Amino acid sequence: MSQRSTPTTRPALLPALRRCLPLLALAVPTLWSATAQAADLTLVTDFGVNGRHAYFFVAQEKGYYRDAGLNVTIVRGQGSADAIKKVAAGSAQVGFADAASLVLARANDEVPVKLLSIVYQQPPQAIFALESSGIRSARDLVGRKVADTASSAVPLLFGAYAQKAGIAKEQVSWMVADGASLPAVLATGRADAIGQFTVGEALLQKAVAPQKLVRLAYKDVGLSYYGNGLIASESMIKQQPEVLKSFVAATLRGMQEAFRDPAGAGQILNAAQKQVDAAVAEAETKAVAELAQNPEGPMGGISVTGMRNTVDTVAGAFTLKRKVTPEEMFVPGFTPR
């Protein structure tokens, strides 16, 4: 991913972060006061552990989860669909997953999982190619082969991207590859491009260096829908709402701290997960901070309008077994204001 020289905290984010600080700091102990004993939670990520997940580890290292009366164990997921299944089955109490994947899971399989909070307020999906490929726009993908994992949200939503970009989705072929091998698949030319979230650009750029990347982001063609958020099962929401509110508040507090100090967040993640480069984690945290900006409400907030856009985008790209409503996709009141 090409990187820009960026100050530690973007000026545009400072006012929002300052407004959130006292609210989030107060929310966690207030919720903990209602909990007599620490609650054990397993959190499953959308895919692996990467720099984009640094704020979870910040919340853990800084004691935000502990202060909220939570003992959180972070485990690696194998894609959003996998995370949703694990949460539905109860092998993880909370998860981090793509909203569009959850729409598909509820509409087609009646999976009893809902969103508690949205982290990526903007679409994170993108297709990356090497400059040497000659790919510069969506039209250049016609007749090309793109690789991604089987459960990735990038190919799932490609139909919506293709329609907006003015090409037929059938004009592009997709191949399945293991997530860890995707950078090599791109670098060696086994595929002309790969699917990847924009927050993973720094890691990908490091893997293909000295070659340069071209990014075709779904949001750049005018798509507007929610990306990843925090999820829980309906039974967990019903039985332990205060525990989940504590988890959301502590996680948002971790996000706030990570956005304030991306370099520190990168170091915290690297200390916990040696395989993740601290500089890459810093860059990915900055990318998450951009996607997390919510001009219409609090950090992590979910609106009916935003959820409707997400449902409509998925419905336009797939034939769903039933029509889901925006209101059934999330639970209001879990984001501190």
From TrEMBL:
All copies of domain SsuA/THI5-like, residue ranges: 51-265
Xref: PANTHER family: 4-AMINO-5-HYDROXYMETHYL-2-METHYLPYRIMIDINE PHOSPHATE SYNTHASE THI11-RELATED (PTHR31528), RIBOFLAVIN-BINDING PROTEIN RIBY (PTHR31528:SF15)
Species whose genome carries this gene: Hydrogenophaga laconesensis
Name recorded for this polypeptide: NitT/TauT family transport system substrate-binding protein
Entries under SUPFAM superfamilies matching the protein: Periplasmic binding protein-like II (SSF53850)
UniProt KW keywords: Signal
Keyword Signal: yes
InterPro entries reported for this sequence: NMT1/THI5, SsuA/THI5
The keyword Lipid metabolism is annotated on this UniProt entry: no
Coiled-coil positions: none
Residues in the signal sequence: 1-38
